[in-house]
Design brief:
about 0% strand, about 80% helix, mainly alpha
């Protein structure tokens, strides 16, 4: 009976649209997340801190 009702295709379309929307959102998030940082990285900040502390220690 449910095949003759026609509601099954609507549910499939909703599920398909939800999968597509989720995939697009994930792709957008990954595009933003994988971009290189425009500011100083954590490693560069730590290295700068160590260099500055060594300079202060020699004074």
């Amino acid at each position: 009976m449910s095949l003759l009702d026609g509601n099954v295709t609507v549910d499939r379309h909703r599920f398909g649209n939800a999968i597509i929307a989720f995939s697009l959102g994930l792709a957008l998030f990954m595009t933003v997340a994988l971009q290189p940082a425009k500011d100083w990285s954590h490693d560069r900040l730590m290295l700068s801190t160590i260099v500055n502390l060594e300079r202060l220690n020699t004074r």
